[in-house]
Amino acid sequence: MFSIEKSINGMNEKIGFFTSFLILPLVLVVVYEVVMRYLFNAPTVWVFEATTLIYGIHFMIGIAYTHKHDGHVCIDVFESRLPVKPRTIMRLIVNLVLFMPTVGLLSIWSVIYAADSWRNWEHASTSWAPPLYPFKTLMAIGFILLLLQGVAKAIHDYHSLTGKAQ
Amino acid sequence: MSPEILAIAMFVFLMASIALGYPLAITLAGVATIFGLIDNGGNVPALLDLFVNNAWGLFQNYTLVAIPLFIFMAQILDRSKVSEALFDALYIVLGGLRGGLGMAVIVVSTVFAATTGIVGASVVAMGLMAGPALLRRGYDKSLSAGIICSSGTLGILIPPSIMLVVYGGLTGMKETSVGNLFAGAILPGLLLSGMYLIYVAVRCFFNPELGPPIPAEERTHSTGQKIRMTLTSFVPPFGLILTVMGTILAGVATPTEAASLGCAGAVVLAVVSRKFNWQVIVQASTATLRTTSMIMLLFIGGKLFSVVFLSMGGGDAVADLLLGMDVHEYVVLAIMMAVVFLMGMFIDWAAILLVVVPIFTPIAMDLDFNPLWFAMLICVNLQTSFLTPPFGYSLFYFKGVAPPEYTMGHIYKGILPFVVIQIIGLGAMIFFPEIITWLPGVFFGG
Amino acid sequence: AKREKFGVDKRHVEVKKELRKIKPSDEKFRWKMVMPWSKGLLFYDFAQHFADSVKLASGGRLDIKVFSAGELVGAMESFDAVSKGSAQVGHDWPGYWKGKNENFVSFASVPFGLDAEGYNIWLYERGGLEQMQELYGRYNLMAFPGGNGGQEMGLFSNKKATSLKDFKGMRLRTVGWFMDIMNQAGASVSPLPGGEVYLALERGVIDAAEFSAPAINFPMGFDDITKYVIEPGIHQPSVQCSIFFNQDAWDSLPADLKWIVKIAAKETQLWSNTWIENLNIQAINKFKEKVEFVTIDDESLSSMAQTTKDYLDGLKAKNPDVKKTLDSQEAFKQDFSTWREQRGRVTPWPIDDYIKGKHTQ
Ligand code: NA
Ligand code: NA
């Protein structure tokens, strides 16, 4: 079980690290559009969509990475007053009862959503008309990575309860 | 169960779940799932298709592209020490005053607000920078949390602002075009900033323990030095304001594009100040990703929650109540403002805009209210929603980056006086509409 | 030869059969309707009008609750939401689903294509509806025409352009097929989202933009920030909307409610056009006070039509559905042309203008 936790953590850390650099092409592409339009009077047909798609991949893949770093905000007013052990138990229960079913369902249906897009060979309804199936697939991957990170956290909490945490 | 009762039950259940201390976005999504299934008779596929559909809508939302861009800009700006230089200069100039450091934070945040379009970026930046500084100087934790959260929230009111862009797109009226909204928001933003300053000055004057001045022996700078430091430290941020607001007003760029130019500008500033290297890129990029994903998962959770709430008829319950009354127009206005305020305690601004603007705008038109004035009242109210517990997103952003000494308790306690200031400011704008309407008149002739 | 009555109302034949199927029931339906429209747009009123008609005619048995864009699903997600059954009903401008099949645009607006009258005749009498239902049917949807907004306005512009060469290098905002066509005509076209148009136009990011019909454009205030309107609206001779149902939901309706829906959809198609054209009259007069209307010259119109034809031929070669539908519309235009020609010179101009010789449309 340690190895599962470790490999999920390692994977999300790496994926998140590389995904974070998508911000650079995002900036460049938008600046490029302004330069092309303003200086060369030649706006592109693709930048508007390209930016939203890059941004979509950026935050979606980053959700699991953020969860790994405990970056998702929570209201810890009451919870932070509990001692460590009941707090861990509560976190584990909420993880299993709320997180797993919700994110699990989102993962399953986003896979179905992506599969439909592949089946219909779906393209955007615009002049540039980029294919949408790769991006819907990446959205599904984002939810699945988040689900896996939840699994890693559950394993971690379970071990810390049984006293075997690293 | 009737839809209204179900909608109320949904809120109560949400409150209870939130106390569990689990990530808020997940809690919102979880509660939305449970109540969505109760409402639609357990039809899992129908609900989940709706959810995934909405997530995809956020995946390709052009307006929100400005979020990572403005955050990245703030991150680079932070590492280029531009804000720090500004902060340091004001620290020395104002530090001798009681509460002077706190006032410096407010001034920096106000300047910063004019370069960023969202709350996350300003609060995060000031939380990282000013949080530890205030702590070191012995500032009261509640007061300093209140100062950072409230003044950091100005980022979404003072243009450029994503909220104003969304509002303009939503109404499609010329009175509330993005240009008019930008112009209309400048004075209200400055008014609120001024009120924060006065509050901090007065509180600390009578109770210096809250915000102690710099000890006399550390005040070694001459007046000339102070003036020079202030001037030089103000140049880079004003260059950036010119890049962002200037390109919008000069017709070079749309607001999202201006955000990107702002990033480029921030990089230039970092290069000039010899603070730009691979390490800075790595840190700024990963920090941007964490903050963006945090905000966007909140967007997803909040969206799923509001979808289920609206789908149950919660929005109609509000409209029916308001339209059923026969009272003075200012009473209706007060009720509408109270509704936005109360919703702001729970729901995120984008969801409120989506729900409230279409319902309230026709009512406001019936009552012959000035559309721009009414729009700005809602926007000031929504800015306040970032501060009001239990869900003040600004408070969470701050908690996310502040030193661990700041507990949620400090933050909640510290923010209350500022919420009162917001309400007073809102009242001023209601009774002196010129605060809102004068500047757009100057820029655009009304 | 003996001449028989020159037409049959095909529905009349079905009435007896249908009546046997209809068993009035008390069963109530509370359905959700999604769309790409925010509440300020008149298209939202099309959808609301349809929902109201159905509710009134069914005595509240079929209660369709209308959700504006973003309330339940994002503007561009309403098609999928209804297809999957997250909502039972949708309203749209079919061109938005171009990415699923290019042919959806044929049922929405075609540059130099059908006007409102043309869509009505082609859809209801010339097999257009069947083609439309076949296309939507592939996505588990049952569709009906759901409102026509008439001709859209041309470009609000800060540059005067009346001939093809004036458009060269102009920065325009438009969407869909017309975007490609104008690009081929030498303009630089951006597909700016609707909410960005005003600011971009005001600040000179773009020189000109089309948005919609006069009454829909009026609240946007484009006339405050531009000098000219370049007419006519060749990009959309009319804007045809549709109403679509999730197929499973549709199948679950009793026969009488199905008829109520069909009749209400047709009533919406009629009402929308009369309502919006009357509003257009008022809007265009107000625009005239603020901006100068200019007209693209005949030679340039011909040339743009040629560019459009070449572009559409290219699409037809790639997509057999587009070929089938556009050919059927073109065949209708061809058939109609004799009658259009013959009746053409009786035009409802004010009588004094007509007396002075203003005879053609
Ligand atoms: Na701002
Ligand atoms: Na709040």
Give a written overview of the molecule.
The complex is a heterotrimer of chains A (166), B (446) and C (361). Chain A has helices at residues 2-19, 23-40, 47-68, 84-119, 133-161. Chain A is built from 5 helices and no strands. Chain A is elongated, with a radius of gyration of 20 Å. Chain A is mainly α. Chain A has one domain (2-162). In chain A, helix 1 packs across helix 5 (133-161), helix 3 (47-68) packs parallel to helix 5 (133-161) and helix 4 runs antiparallel to helix 5. Chain A starts with a helix and ends in a 5-residue tail after the last helix. Chain B has 446 residues and is an all-alpha fold. Chain B has helices at 3-18, 24-39, 44-59, 66-79, 82-94, 100-113, 119-136, 141-153, 162-171, 178-206, 223-249, 255-272, 278-311, 314-323, 329-346, 349-366, 371-385, 393-401, 408-431, 434-444. The radius of gyration of chain B is 22 Å and the shape is globular. Chain C is 47% helix and 14% strand. Chain C contains 14 helices and 11 strands. Chain C has helices spanning 10-21, 42-57, 78-84, 116-125, 128-137, 164-167, 177-184, 197-202, 214-217, 247-251, 255-290, 298-318, 320-343, 351-355, and strands at residues 29-34, 62-66, 89-92, 141-148, 155-157, 171-173, 188-190, 208-209, 228-231, 240-246, 292-295. A 6-stranded mixed β-sheet of chain C has the order 7-6-8-5-9-11, sandwiched between helices. In chain C, strands 2-1-3-10-4 form a 5-stranded mixed β-sheet. The complex binds sodium ion (NA) (2 copies). One sodium ion binds at residues 113-114, 116-117, 155, 158-161 of chain B. One sodium ion (NA) binds at residues 113-114, 116-117, 155, 158-161 of chain B.
